Amino acid sequence: MENEVQDQAERKASRKSVAFTDEQLVVETDGSITIMSAAEEPKETAQSHTPPAADEAAPPEDGGLDLSLLKKKKKKKKVEGLDGDAEAEDGAAPAEDGGLDLTMKKKKKKVKKAEGAEEDEFTAKLKQLEVKDTEDAEETAPQDAGDMETGTGVWSHSESKTIPYTLLLSRFFTVLSQKNPDHSLSGTKSYKIPPPQCMREGNRKTVFANIADICKRMKRTEEHVTAYLFAELGTNGSVDGNRRLVIKGRFQQKQIENVVRKYIIEYVTCKTCKSPDTELNKGENRLYFITCNNCGSRRSVTAIKTGFSAQIGKRKKMQG
Amino acid sequence: MSIENLKTFDPFAEADDDTGDIKKVENHIHIRIQQRNGRKSLTTVTGLPAKFDPGKILTFFRKEFACNGNKVNDEKAGEVIQLQGDQRKKVLDFLVDKKAGLGLNPDNITVHGA
């Protein structure tokens, strides 16, 4: 049983998404993450499962940008989770951990039904999952006739037919979100960071204005983030008077955002519990370690390496 | 017969050489991008496995991606393939593709840059 719970916790964690947002006080100074308002949350979590194309279109809705590089992995995991006895486990676990899990699953299904047509890329990638889902839909559709609120159809008091698992599960979550919204939300908490503000300085320099703010949210030193940015973008730059980062080369907000996403996945989120509440400090052997404040796990992270950089521009410089 | 104890071994030498790190780089492929002037860019592929001939791969890339490119021998990174333009995705596809490409493990390949 314990194993099941652990397994469950892991799966739950893997679905957590990291997102950029405009909301100002999402990650507080003490490290706690404020939960977003009830109306907004489901939409955002749903976004994290939509394909990149839909992702780009989505931000205007909440002004935030979803940070879900882990998307593909998540999906695959879900396919596994749906198979066979894993499903039975799923059924048992929500009761144990307060029903925090599976919220994503349900929401995902909703998304699929609503936006199925738009998600070409998505559908292509996950054909098998899709097939499975449509099967599900067919299966449940005829029985869905009854209204669970009013107690008709399958839900009527005198009905003796066995109610399928999927229906029971959906009932569980509707009731949960009605009666106890806090519980249904806590599983889908997502990590939010303000979108990077990028400005062009002159023709070939980019200013990353809110790096200080972002670093504060992530609880990482600016030097570390800067080093990573430069290594990833293959450039260099400097910090100006207002603690803004000046990067050589033209970069768009989206590009910077992608790199910050990678950074968060690599150096901020805890690999065990996916919590962003972690600390980075130097260990014994010149290695950097991430210590999770949530689950207490400690892991080493790779040092930032610039790698090979090709000679660009004047050859004279190389010789001289 | 050698006396194990009397071998000259400097425990601090290894750390400076960073031998372990370089070995790791060898079997891990990095695909990077660098910005050049204007909207031009340069793709570099480092750490290709030794069993593949970089020259042949380069000729293939040049023909397939319709770009110029060259290989550079770097002290640290070894043979490096440089390609004109942003070819990261195509290179990755080729390296991973089992049928038409090299069929390498995608876990060993890192694509850098935004």
UniProtKB/TrEMBL annotation, chain A:
Residues 188-298 form the Translation initiation factor IF2/IF5 domain. One of its GO terms (biological process) is formation of translation preinitiation complex. Keywords: Initiation factor, Protein biosynthesis. GO terms for molecular function: mRNA binding; translation initiation factor activity; translation initiation factor binding. Residues 51-68 have a biased composition (Low complexity). It holds the Pfam family eIF-5_eIF-2B. It comes from the Eukaryota. GO terms for cellular component: eukaryotic translation initiation factor 2 complex. Gene3D superfamilies: 3.30.30.170. Residues 1-99, 133-156 are annotated as: Disordered. The keyword Repressor does not apply. Belongs to the eIF-2-beta/eIF-5 family. This is Translation initiation factor 2 beta subunit (Interpro motif IF5). It comes from Trichoderma parareesei.
TrEMBL record, chain B:
GO terms for biological process: regulation of translation. Pfam families: SUI1. Keywords: Protein biosynthesis, Translation regulation. InterPro entries: SUI1, SUI1_dom_sf, SUI1_euk. SUPFAM superfamilies: eIF1-like. GO terms for molecular function: translation initiation factor activity. Residues 29-99 form the SUI1 domain. It comes from the Eukaryota. Belongs to the SUI1 family. Additional factor that functions in concert with eIF-2 and the initiator tRNA in directing the ribosome to the proper start site of translation. This is SUI1 domain-containing protein. It comes from Hypocrea jecorina (strain QM6a) (Trichoderma reesei).
